[in-house]
Automatic annotation (TrEMBL):
Similarity field: Belongs to the SDHAF4 family.
InterPro entries xref list: SDHF4
Residue segments, region Disordered: 26-71
Listed Pfam families: DUF1674
Positions with biased composition (Basic and acidic residues): 58-71
Source organism of this protein record: Paroceanicella profunda
UniProt protein name: DUF1674 domain-containing protein
Superkingdom assignment: Bacteria
Length: 71
């Protein structure tokens, strides 16, 4: 038995909806587990000889002893 285009579209839409529901559930699970960007950064080992405070490269540049490097 051949499926009509509308049947194929309905099956595809159902598969996409299932995948979206799984993705949302996984994201909620990560949030509940405390996997926020701040939590991930806090879990990383300390950098030896690095700068104090937040990571300066998040702004796309770095300054050390008055010399600025842009990435």
């Amino acid at each position: 038995m051949s499926q009509t285009p509308s049947d194929k579209e309905a099956i595809r839409a159902a598969r996409i909806a299932e995948a979206a529901a799984r993705a949302l559930a996984e994201a909620e699970e990560r949030r509940a587990a405390g996997r926020s960007p701040e939590a991930v950064e806090a879990a990383m080992p300390a950098e030896l000889g690095g700068r104090n405070g937040p990571e300066p490269t998040r702004f796309g540049d770095w300054e050390k002893k008055g010399i600025i490097s842009d990435f």
